[in-house]
Amino acid sequence: MVRTDQSVSALSVQLLLAVAEQIKLPLLQIARTAELSQVRDTTADLDSIQTTADMAIKLLDSYLFGARLALESDYRLNIEPVSVAAVLYDTGQQLTAMAKLYGVELQLDIAGRFAPVLANRQGLQSAMTSLGYALIEALPSLNAQTLTLHLAVHNSRYGVVAGVYSDAEQLSVEALRQGRKLQGHIRQPLASISPSSGAGIFVADAILQAMSTELRPTRHHNLHGLGAVLRPTPQLQLV
Amino acid sequence: MNILIIEPDTVLAKLYTKALQRAGDEVVCCVNAQSAVFSADERQPDAVVLELQLVKHSGIEFLYEFRSYPEWQAIPVIVLSNVPPVEFIDNWKLLQRQLGVVDYLYKPHTTLAKLLKTVDNVRTTAVQLSP
Questions:
Q1: Residues of chain A whose pLDDT is less than 70?
Q2: What is d(CA A143, CA B42) in angstroms, rounded to the nearest whole number?
Q3: Tell me: the pLDDT tens digits for B54-104?
Q4: CA A216, CA B45: separation in Å to the nearest integer?
Q5: Which residue in chain B is spatially nearest to A192 when comparing CA positions?
Q6: Contacts of residue B19 in chain A, CB cutoff 8 Å?
Q7: What residue segments make up the domains of chain B, in order of their start?
Q8: Is A140 on the interface with B (CB under 8 A)?
Q9: Domain that holds residue A225
Q10: Which of the residues B7, B15, B35 would you substitute to probe the A interface, choosing the one with the greatest number of A C-beta atoms within 10 Å?
């Protein structure tokens, strides 16, 4: 994908606007939790404050990573053979505390034989963490039958698909395309699944684009979600 | 007082609920407009605290639906939103007169104390909608 200086600048500004809007949420949660703790004269909410602050820092790291990629037009991530199952396992570890805070159960569907894929490990993990955060936050509003988020991998004829899924209705291809265009211009570019700026989804998209793939609506068994198709490494499949 | 909170973020929703319960109010919390309408139907609220940025149907859509029922037209609605009030300057009269919004709080700048005070102020407020 060829990006001009002007389009890169516009993309990064839009992404930063979405990120700035999004990062207000954990700060607001911390501020209000601290206020309530003071009123109740208790330290029982310190765990929740710590979880929110830790997650906000991780999220900001992912956002910065994505924003840096969006800013640097010629930047391409170093591609290496990566185990998607291992990345999703680590992503699950990163998101556990956050999911607990939102009452969402995380489930890993990573069993099976999957060839290593060509990706950047840090990039893929940041993308999946940003995506996971966005969907954890959104899931309670989506009329899901169960508050369960699946971090899953499966083989498709196009490659290995890594994604985050639930039984709630997810974005259509058209809604995601529109959302990309509207990002940074309106407050809720992905209003059908996110009450906020949806920054986590756009950051994941920016990181994946730097790995020459992109975020797309995908399905895993009977679940709906967002994921990326990754190319398997042919050499390592022979080993 | 029975308060219906419509807040899509469940962490914030729990905090607002705890604060209002502590002040002696009974609180029902909904994460989207659809469940809020069902909830109001089951148990009529005395006041509504509403975020405008919701999934699928916006807070404004909820207000139009809510005000279309005669029995809910006098219930005061406080907007507690991430949308800065400056973005609603041109539409404030519409929100106030036609949709019965009695106060507009910008969420990032609204402490729990301020929310409680605002809810306290609307205890005796009955909304009179203009056509």
A1: 1-11, 70, 73-76, 235-239
A2: 18
A3: 998 999 999 999 999 999 999 999 999 999 988 887 888 888 888 999 999
A4: 41
A5: B56
A6: 36, 39
A7: 2-121
A8: yes
A9: 1-239
A10: B15
Gyration radius of chain B over CA positions: 13
B123, two tokens = 């205890």
Contact call for B15 and A29, based on CB within 8 A: yes
Q: How many domains does chain A have?
A: 1
Please answer yes or no on whether B55 and A103 come within 8 Å at the CB atom: no
Chain B CB within 8 Å of residue A94 CB? no
pTM above 0.80, yes or no: yes
What are the Cα distances from residue B91, in Å, to A47, A121, A238, B59, B98?
41, 48, 65, 14, 10
CB contact under 8 A, A36 and B34: no
Q: What superfamily does domain B2-121 belong to in CATH?
A: Response regulator (3.40.50.2300)
Contacts of A39 in chain B (CB under 8 A): 19, 22, 112
C-alpha distances (whole Å) from B105 to each of B73, B85, B117 are 21, 8, 12
Residues A172-217: pLDDT tens digits?
Answer: 999 999 999 988 788 899 999 999 888 899 989 988 988 888 899 9
Question: Chain A to chain B, count of Cβ pairs less than 8 Å apart?
Answer: 69
We report the CATH number of the domain holding residue A122 as: 3.30.565.10
